């Protein structure tokens, strides 16, 4: 029987109104992935259907993990408290990131820009670097907006953020009392709030962050700088360092007070070397935090103004007692050579403790190293963790002589890696690189250092391959001929 228009319309109506809607029948994992790809403003999508409503919470929890909670902001802390009290959403939050928003008195500060001078005698534009003041590259409205924000911005527990390491050595005054009392108030609040996140396992602290309310104005400032060719260089300010030192100390104490179990921890470390780290927090507090940590990412923390307060009493060696579950360690800003200009403190432990006492590391990542060579203490450390170490990632930069590292890995009878990843410097032109050719190990040697050797990025790999190519006599004659022809043309 032929299908009439009336029958088609009826069939479509049945398909639309049936509870067997295809969106509802999609697996929750697929719906969660769809929601996680939507813009942050599309939170109303959970009202579309039951499928989106039921699967929205994991996506929201993932989005919260990308949110920075400002410990100085009343609104931010109120949002954190509301999330912790939400019966459904709190179960899907596994990671939290914290910061201390601060606008330094030096921002936007004096900047440098390239100036082209066309009045050269040869009628060619000459280039010179010139310092410009904020009044020269920002209009009065933007400058007024920055000053207005500084004067009228209010902060939660304002006195708590006046604390700095110097206060521990000051005589008792009302200012010190107010700072320490309010600081403990922030610790108590965070301890109570974080203890409600039963599925929380990852904590991150991000330093050098501006307040969220300042960001729209900051984007306008950056547009004004880019318009005239200024590449922003953030000026270092001691008050910013004090804010981050204070924020990390508050966060660590709150984790201990709230008995929060953390498996992944990422934060700034003012001093680090191989198996040893030091912070401005009481080492007993840091030890309690690290007792369940499996992955530790130590980032560099600017603290030049307060480093004289950091001493041997603040050092914590990553032993099996202090960090019994630590398996992955990332040191960003590590020092390869203690005698370099970026010297580690003289009081820091260089001698490696026995293998049986070190944390059972399986993955070691070394990023943005300083110094031209690796000293013997570092090789002693690798030997000490060699029985458990399986993956090593090294960012060699432009200066590090990594040939001796490869030679050590090949000849060592203790270290046996499953994977070695070498991350080289970014090279725009592989044929013209400032890398030190003498530091490049032979190709056969490099690929014997581990079962799986990865070289990145692609440009650096291409540069290495070009250095490994055999130089034939014909090739050298060809280059010589080119040089002679070039000299004759001059």
Summarize the topology.
Layout: H1 5-17, H2 22-25, H3 28-36, H4 50-65, E1 68-70, H5 74-84, E2 95-101, E3 111-117, E4 126-132, H6 134-137, H7 140-152, H8 174-194, E5 202-209, H9 215-227, H10 238-257, E6 264-269, E7 271-273, E8 276-278, H11 283-290, E9 295-300, E10 315-317, E11 328-332, E12 363-367, H12 376-384, E13 391-395, H13 403-411, E14 417-423, H14 443-446, E15 450-456, H15 458-468, H16 473-489
Parallel strand pairs: 1-2, 2-5, 5-6, 6-9, 9-11, 11-12, 12-13, 13-14, 14-15
Antiparallel strand pairs: 3-4, 7-8, 8-10
* Count of domain modules: 2
Shape: globular
Tell me the β content.
Answer: 15-25%
The radius of gyration computed from the alpha-carbon positions, rounded to a whole number of angstroms, is 29 Å
Structural class: alpha/beta
What's the tally of helices? 16
Tell me which oligomeric state these chains represent.
single chain
Please outline the major beta sheet: 10 strands, parallel
Overall pLDDT, averaged?
81
Stretches where pLDDT falls below 50 for ≥5 residues? 1-20
N-end to C-end Cα span: 93 Å
Number of strand elements: 15
| Biggest sheet, spatial arrangement of strands | 1-2-5-6-9-11-12-13-14-15
Helix content: 25-40%
